[in-house]
Write a structure and sequence with these properties.
Elements lengths: L16 H7 L9 H18 L5 E5 L3 H10 L7 E6 L2 H12 L3 E6 L8 H10 L5 E7 L1 E2 L4 E2 L2 H10 L5 E5 L18 E5 L11 E5 L1 H6 L12 H8 L10 H17 L1 H22 L2 E2 L11 E5 L6 H12 L14 E5 L6 H17 L8 H12 L10
Parallel strand pairs: 2-3, 2-4, 4-7, 7-8
Antiparallel strand pairs: 1-9, 5-6, 8-9, 10-11, 11-12
Helix pairs in contact: 1-9, 2-9, 5-6, 9-10, 10-13, 11-12, 12-13
Length: 396
Amino acid sequence: MSDQNPVFIPGPTNIPDRLRSAMQVQTRDHRAPDFVETFAPVLEDTKRVFGTTSGTVITFPASGTGGWEAAICNTLSPGDKVLVARYGMFSHRWIDLCQRHGLDVHVIECPWGAGAPADKFEAVLTEDKARDIKAVLVTHNETATGVKSDIAAVRAAMDAASHPAMMFVDCVSSLASMEFCMDDWGVDIAVSGSQKGFMLTTGMAILGVSPKALAAMETATLPRTFFDFSDMMAANASGGFPYTPPLQLIYGMRESLKMLFEEGLESVYARHFRLAEGVRRAVDGWGMKLVAESPALYSDTVSAIYVPDGFDSNALTDQAFNAYGVSFGIGLGEMNGKAFRIGHLGSLTDVMVLSGLATIEMAMADLDYPVELGSGVAAAQDYFRSHRAALVKTAA
């Protein structure tokens, strides 16, 4: 019966029955006229979630990593210089991808637990008198550390330096869960995926692309075939795909958007804050600390939590799974063995979150953590009870 337990990893997330049903469709002809009626509204409605009216939504059968690759290979050329900060596993992986594509990657090293360093970006961009830097890459929500970066501050830094570089943002674990303002923040490419805030299975990379980024395709020479924006947009214009699309995911995406809009995006964001704050209160109740360096950096989709000295976070997540059939996020990269993660995004309620907190507490008790059983749960309960007025209809 353990397959009935929710997961508390930062993605893939729990899939509501409504979306499972929407994806459970028989094979259909993606070149038939009625496919246009399904697919075109999905592209248009997704713009609302990105927070754009001027951008174009482009999807590929891939994970978020495919979206990263699509972003750079459509807009950059071999040897182009890009600026990126490393402050977690996913910013690190984006750096690695750029280096493998022959880009000149200027890396700003930051502590894991810090966010995107807008001030350091501004300093580097100001010194770039020749304007060699073609793009600034930012991870909005660093899943390995539970850190949310201030994208508006990065845009302000770029503007202060009067630099023409494009800004690419990884919002894989934030889109459809936390507010994202592509147009207002001046984002040129935003990269997301189907398996987190959209509550679907993995398999669709979802990008928001600005007119400036589309114009960069004219001079970009990195090779691209499967991830070619031009091919995809040309096919999309007539309601189709240049190759076989992930049909079930497109039907799921249509229903996911309906669910998000029925709840209301502002209510979705409020729910995620509420659940995250309950988890944060539990962490305080345990006497533990978040990896994120300050409250301004706290993510509303995932919390990374240091375990006490002398304990192994991997043993804790193993115990939760082996003893109780519940998955929590392991520590990644520099956090391996030092921190575990609680994902609190997608299809979750306060009651479901309380079940996860109770489970990880039992695993802590099994391993003789210096934590009083029920302390974190009680702290979260107090918060949820005192904020009942903020309870909103959930995407369950």
